[in-house]
C-alpha cells in the first residue's frame, strides 16, 4: 500500500510543480490541474476499494472533475478569442 501512496503523492507533486512552472500558458495549466485531479481521483478510488470511503464520493468527485475540465476548456476558448492566443500576460 505504501507504493500506491507514494505514487499518488509523486503524481500530485509533479502536477503542482508543472502548475507553478508553466503558469503563463493556459493549456499547460489545465493539463497540470488535470494531473493533480487524476492523482486525487486514484487516491480516493483506492481508499474506496479498501472500504474506507463510499463509491458515491468517488462518482461525485469524477462528475466534478469533468465539469471543471469543461469549464476550463470554455475559458481557454474565451481567452483565445478575446486575446488572440492562450498565453497570460500580467502587468503588475
Report on this structure.
With 92 residues, the chain is an all-alpha fold. The chain has a single domain, classed as Helix Hairpins, CATH 1.10.287. Helices cover 80% and strands 0% of the residues. The chain is elongated and about 50 Å long.
Cα-based radius of gyration, to the nearest Å: 16 Å
Total individual domains: 1
Along the chain, the helix and strand elements come as HHH
The N- to C-terminal Cα distance equals 46 Å
- CATH topology value: Helix Hairpins
| Fraction of helical residues | over 70%
Query: What is the structural class?
Result: mainly alpha
What is the architecture at the second tier of CATH?
A: Orthogonal Bundle
What would you call the shape? elongated
* Largest sheet geometry: none
CATH class: Mainly Alpha
Number of helices: 3
Protein name: NADH dehydrogenase subunit 4L
Keywords: Membrane, Mitochondrion, Transmembrane, Transmembrane helix
Short key terms for the protein model shown above:
mainly alpha, 92 residues, mitochondrion, transmembrane, single chain, Helix Hairpins
